[in-house]
Design brief:
The chain is 61% helix and 0% strand. The chain is mainly alpha-helical.
Length: 168
């Protein structure tokens, strides 16, 4: 079987960008209590504003970003946060308007329509995050990018985290 290195390398870059985007998204502290019956949440911590990761999640540690790089990354993040606000608001509105699944009635068409609407918003958010990470990547030096790649590979070798314990 002949490997198509061009496609393989493009796929590898795409996976890298999505992984960094997901890491960035998960490293952001909650903007308020999460929707749903459990609520709660906390702010701050090492991934919070001004934390050691500087917006690159756990991959950003030990990169020795300059003050200029930190400022550029913050500017990029702020501009995307503002432009993505409408998408997050739409997602929140969709979640709040969902009927209670435990109410005893089930409308499959409504559930499918809501899921499709959320999926479309999620696609736009993922594209936006990938674009943002691309711009952030342009701020980094070749050495910093190599460090990020090494940390990403180390993270991938560790495998997924264990599932959370049952709550019920």
């Amino acid at each position: 079987m002949k490997l198509n290195w061009k496609k393989l390398s493009i796929a590898g870059v795409a996976v890298f960008v999505l992984l960094i985007a997901a890491t960035f998204a998960l490293s952001q502290g909650p903007q308020g209590p999460p929707p749903g019956p459990f609520g709660g949440g906390f702010r701050g911590g090492p991934g919070g504003p001004g934390g050691p990761r500087e917006g690159l999640g756990p991959f950003g540690r030990d990169l020795n970003l300059t003050d200029d790089q930190k400022a550029q990354i913050k500017t990029i993040q702020d501009s995307f946060r503002e432009s993505d606000k409408a998408l997050f608001d739409q997602m929140r509105a969709l979640h709040q308007s969902e009927p209670d699944p435990m109410s005893g009635t089930f409308d499959e068409a409504a559930v499918r329509a809501a899921a499709e609407a959320r999926a479309k918003i999620q696609i736009e958010l993922e594209v936006s995050h990938a674009k943002m990470m691309s711009l952030i990547g342009a701020v980094l030096t070749a050495d910093q990018k190599a460090q990020l790649t090494a940390r990403r590979q180390q993270f991938e070798r560790q495998g997924p985290p264990p599932p959370p314990p049952d709550r019920f």
